[in-house]
Amino acid sequence: MFSYVNFPGWIRPEVVSFLPVRWYAVMYIVAFSVAYVVFRKYCRLGALGKMNADTSTDLFLYAIVGLILGARIGSCLLYEGSFYYFTHPWMMFWPFRNGVFVGLPGMSYHGGVLGAFLGVVLFAKKNGYRILDLCDGICVSVPLGYTFGRLGNFINGELWGRCTGTSYGMIFPDAPRFSTNEEWVRLAAEKAGIAYSNGSFVNLPRHPSQLYEAFFEGIVLFFVMWFLVRPLVRNRNLGRGVLTGAYIGGYGLVRFVIEYFREPDSQLGFVIALGKETEPVALFRSVLNISMGQVLCFIMILIGAVLIFRGCRLEPADYSGKGADKGKKNRKKR
Length: 334
Fold this sequence. Notes:
The chain is mainly alpha-helical. The chain has one domain. Helices cover 55% and strands 5% of the residues. The strands form 4 sheets. The protein has a two-stranded parallel ribbon.
């Protein structure tokens, strides 16, 4: 009896087989669109002086450009595992490898957050908005859109989780195979009901960590931010930056936990390896083995806590439109 799930065979990364358009890129567009719709709802409820659609679009363009640049640069510098991009920075955005179109194969969430923040800062300085007011609005809008980004990873069959013997473990076609010369591989294969021969390589079931992230970092975090934190900030008259801190800290906490189910990047392994056993990285051995993603998430948790503490001591968040007054004046001059 099999105790695993096969990756759906009908799923293909390409939208159309004869065109270089992948579902991952489509999911990015859907993610941005969903976040924009939620942001417009946030504005219509009275925040940011009921910022109009044209200004909202300008803000999102700044944030999206910053996000894409930051996500790609962050992936190349933090996760590539060598100094190649430090010496060949022009290759970061080159979409071809060996004459084949591959797009931008690596994107870092944490780099994207930093890039989007810089884009928001530029927009705020140019248009006279308070930075934290804009960040609060974006942070309450982002999680639901983020869900589709992780679904894009799942469709691509990438960023799989660690090996598991649970019945909902999934076999991803492109995941690395392991030699049955290793005892743990034989035990895992037998538990999953996978036939093998001595010395062969088998593909073991893994946690579908992309779906975990889509659900908890996307759907659950959105409901917490929109239906719990946002009303709390408004009803308690809390200061600006609390929403931003709640999202950054909340995402960091959820992602930190899920990283224990997600296989670390093979070229990096564990950046902090304090557990007794650190190999293979495809197995969960100890909570003391920490990935690069967890280090960055821990930093996010600290930043989120500081923003919440600081926000509670500042003047209330902007729901009256005062934060947009200067921006409106600037726009009239153009």
